[in-house]
UniProtKB/TrEMBL annotation:
Keyword list, A-Z: Membrane, Transmembrane, Transmembrane helix
Compositional bias annotation for Basic and acidic residues: 319-330
Protein name: Uncharacterized protein
Species name: Candidatus Kaiserbacteria bacterium GW2011_GWC2_52_8b
Lineage: Bacteria, Candidatus Kaiseribacteriota
Membrane-crossing residue ranges in chain numbering: 51-69, 89-107
UniProt region (Disordered), positions on chain: 313-335
Length: 481
């Protein structure tokens, strides 16, 4: 009969065994790494060498089925009989789910196609007296769920919430600022912009993306999306507050990180174009609370979760969650480093702002004979001045042309041509959150977006910025007739 000591030894060895297995096959949340024998480790490793992850997983699955078929010769018969026998249970559910998805896809495409959109160009005067905080306030007023008011409107008519696109476009070095919106929302957009920047002008213009005709025989293109990396969306990028632009110093002392972006866009050659797109809509993403069927706002829970992780990591003594409220051990004894303090300060500051779902993309187009690789490299890291990968976040180039690093990834440039055609179509449609081009989005606050897109002051001297010579004003009412 085993004694208490034997049971304790068995428990210890069992725990050690599970720890060893988890190191090989499992996932360590602290280091954010998978075990050496975990399938995800191999998939990520092959992806770094430019090999198709989907092809690897498919071949692995087919190989496992072939091995099972050898061991169990009647596997196909048994599987067919099981599928047919259980079809009264799973088939109606699958048909209903599939029909629902097809219906929602159809009504949303129909609704979006019936909306008329316009492109407004922002004409910028020589003098801008407001800081990017004014743009933040303007963006905050776009945090609205108009377009999807009721279940009937969403599920029967296909209504979707309004989304907007704030764009930068450089045509041979001439930089333009654009706002793309529904025609029905034009008055709203003009009101919030003029309220903060009365000196600018908004003029309806022809859509440059739809007007341009991309010819694969004549042009080359490099396209990319931007994703927050290397941390979760709870960690912000550097914003205008980090550069103290909210304090409105003298023009000669202002350091605007957008200046580099505009200077780079101004430096391209006459036969080149760069289009940049920041698409946004309000964020109401939810996720399920752990251990319950209730949901909670994704953005808030992400921030609280990351702050709590930092507090626990920085604690001198482990936190005792079940202690009474008056016990200091309930919250531990955190002693964070300077970087950890900055992380918590930045996340909690942004928690008080309105969160948006944000999609960002850019494309560089030039003639084949003069396509300049340093230009698209610069476009990939266009947002470097806003990056803080050491302890916050950065906007990293992903997808599209970034996936073609090795010759075997694109045979005869077939995927490049397909990706370029699809990217330009998504750009023209300003499609990100809904069909036909649904893409994973970032969560960013109005503060971060205003830092990336705002009318530059006179301290930004990029030569390509198209400025109007003077601000228009009404004549005084007491002039003699």
């Amino acid at each position: 009969m085993a004694g208490p000591g034997d049971v304790e030894k068995l428990t210890t060895h069992t725990a050690e065994g599970f720890t060893f297995l988890s190191m090989l096959f499992g996932y360590d949340p602290a280091s954010k790494r998978y075990g050496k024998l975990n399938l995800t480790t191999w998939v990520e490793y092959l992806g770094k060498w430019g090999l198709s992850r989907a092809l690897f997983v498919t071949m692995l699955f087919v190989g496992m089925l072939a091995a099972l078929s050898i061991e169990v010769p009647d596997l196909g018969t048994y599987s067919s009989q099981w599928l047919v026998g259980t079809s009264p249970i799973w088939l109606p559910i699958a048909l209903l789910v599939g029909a629902w998805k097809v219906w929602m896809w159809y009504v949303r495409v129909y609704f979006i196609s019936k909306q008329k959109h316009i492109l407004l160009e922002m004409k910028i005067p020589r003098e801008i007296t407001r800081s990017p905080r004014a743009m933040e306030l303007a963006l905050t007023n776009l945090w609205t769920s108009s377009g999807e008011t009721t279940l009937f409107h969403r599920w029967w008519r296909g209504g979707v919430r309004a989304y907007y696109s704030f764009e930068l476009a450089s045509f041979g070095g001439q930089v333009h600022f654009y706002i793309w919106t529904r025609e029905s929302d034009r008055n709203i957009v003009e009101s919030i912009v003029y309220a903060q920047y009365p000196e600018v002008e908004l003029i309806e213009v022809e859509d440059y993306a739809s007007k341009f005709r991309y010819d694969p025989e004549k042009h080359m293109a490099f396209s990319t999306d931007y994703r927050l990396d290397p941390r979760s969306d709870a960690f912000p990028i550097k914003t205008y507050l980090d550069y103290e632009l909210d304090k409105d110093p003298k023009e000669e002392y202002k350091i605007d990180p957008l200046a580099y972006v505009l200077e780079f866009l101004s430096s391209i050659k006459p036969n080149e174009q760069i289009w940049v797109q920041i698409i946004l809509t309000l964020n109401k993403d939810k996720r399920r609370k752990k251990g319950t069927l209730q949901t909670e706002p994704l953005w808030e829970s992400l921030v609280h979760e990351e702050v709590e992780k930092i507090r626990e990591t920085a604690s001198l003594n482990p936190r005792k969650k079940d202690a009474p409220d008056d016990d200091p051990r309930k919250f531990g004894f955190p002693k964070p480093t300077w970087a950890e303090q900055e992380q918590m300060k930045s996340m909690e500051r942004h928690l008080g702002k309105y969160p948006f779902s944000v999609g960002m993309r850019a494309i560089y187009i030039g003639d084949k004979s003069r396509f300049h690789s340093p230009t698209y490299v610069g476009m990939r890291w266009l947002w470097r001045p806003f990056a803080n990968p050491q302890y916050l976040n950065q906007l990293r180039p992903v997808r599209w042309s970034n996936t073609f690093d090795y010759p075997w990834q694109d045979f005869h440039r077939m995927r490049y041509k397909l990706h370029t055609r699809r990217f330009i179509d998504a750009f023209r449609r300003r499609s990100w959150f809904y069909t036909p081009w649904i893409t994973p989005h970032n969560i960013m606050t109005a503060e971060a977006i205003a830092s990336l897109w705002h009318p530059p002051s006179s301290s930004v001297t990029a030569p390509g910025i198209v400025r109007i010579p003077a601000t228009k004003a009404e004549p005084p009412p007491n002039l003699p007739m």
